Amino acid sequence: MTKSYIISNLTCLLILASCGCSGLQYSPYNIPAIPAHRVPSEFLGRSRETMQEISVSRLRQSPPIAYQLAPGDVLGIYIENVLGNPEEAPPVHFPEAGDQPPAIGFPSPVREDGTVALPLVKPIPVEGLTLEQATAKIRNTYTVKNKILRPGQDRVIVTLMRRRQVRVLVIREEAGGKENVLKRGSGEIVDLDAYENDLLHALNETGGLPGLDAKNEVLIVRGNAASGADYDRFVAAVKSCKKPCQCPPEIGDSPDITRIPIRFYPENVPNFTEKDIILQTGDIVYIPSREKERFYTGGVLPGGEHFIPRDYDLDVLKAVAIAGGKVGGGTTGIQSLGGRGGGTGGGGSNVGRAGAIGPSRLIVLRKNECGDEIPIKVDMNRALLDPTHRILVQPGDTLIMQYTLKEEAFNVLLSIFNFNFLLNQN
Q1: Strand pairing class (74-79; 156-162)
Q2: pLDDT of 297
Q3: Does the N-terminal or the C-terminal CB of the chain have fewer CB atoms within 10 Å?
Q4: Average of per-residue pLDDT across 252-268
Q5: 167 pLDDT exceeds 50?
């Protein structure tokens, strides 16, 4: 192989690269794409770093001034000569909860109708009363109303022996939160005391606030199985539609589902009320995982799937670096002319070859709301200085890194030059 033959072939390569031969420009290798700076901003995604955390105090109910009785409470009641003898000390019950004082008297539950049944009198309504008010009403029933005890000589004690509880199911699909607490795919039944039956206490009992791999919302599912079945049928009908843009584009919330966002944009401050975060027996607290928030890589980059951060932005430069590619040239290319190599390409089969120019053509395949893929072209060299090409990676994106024709031609030129240089050395 003569030097003139090599030089002539290199000249052809450079001419092809500079003129942009149509046969190469529109080959299947070059995916037709829209330049990043021409794509509407609303299609490029919004920065997650502008979101703010919700105040934790909004996830709990306000503590009451005084405890009000309701069905499910168990009272400790002592009425001398009625419930208890004067010669014997009233029984004392020490509750398991450390924040509740000891209870004195015999257990008397508040029934479903809000009354308490006591000897010698009709059931006494106590629902909505405080302990002090319940004591006065019971004393009045036995003295003034029924004249069983003499006023001033009665001894009536009413205490709270056990608070009523609300039983809810908490399902967590994420794994973050408290250390050494496994939550992924877990379902746990939680009993919450009255006035602590809110979302914050339910989360605290099952591992704390949602982890980084959870979505930015918590769902509270209420209602019965019949309403849930109707909602499942509606969702199935929407998802089975083969033309998404002609069907309802979004699945609306059921009246039995309350969404509580954990992070939000400043202009969309959540407007849920305290009533929305109070839980009742039978409610389901659901924390969905964001496992589907991933992006995929191919082309010169090593093929794979990668997780998208929840609390900070991931642009194409960072995404390529995470995938194992190199952002920007590592050398000036002079050492490649000396035959030592210096590849600056991304990952993949072309990485190891000697070349001073790395791939700069990035194609981002992104789906719109109709399910169609729209290719976006990013110039990685321009993205180093131009923010309009430093677009944010969105869930489901596929990043394909390619060499441009000029980069391929220049790298081939360097390879032949290095080969010829080695022949002359020998």
Answers
A1: antiparallel
A2: 92
A3: C
A4: 82
A5: yes
| CA distances from residue 217 to 54, 132, 199, 252, 372 in whole angstroms, order as listed | 10, 41, 12, 15, 27
Is the Cα torsion angle 98, 104, 108, 111 positive or negative in sign?
negative
Tokens for 323, please give them: 């995938």
**Choices 1.25.40, 3.10.560, 3.30.70, 1.10.10: CATH for 165-287:** 3.10.560
Instruction: Name the percent of the chain lying above pLDDT 90.
Output: 27
Q: Would you state the structure tokens that stand for residue 220, as one six-digit string? A: 């509270």
| CATH, range 3-49+293-425 | 3.10.560.10
Bridge partners (DSSP) listed for residue 106: 77
Which two tokens mark 201?
Answer: 């206490």
Residue 219 sits at the vertex; the CA angle it makes with 215 and 221, to the nearest 5 degrees, is 155
Which of 76-114 are b and which e, b meaning 16 or more Cβ less than 10 Å from the residue's Cβ? bbbbeebbbeeeeebeeeebeeeebeebbbbebebeeeb
For residue 193, is pLDDT > 60? yes
Which residue from 291, 266, 262, 81 is spatially nearest to 185, judged by alpha carbons?
Answer: 291
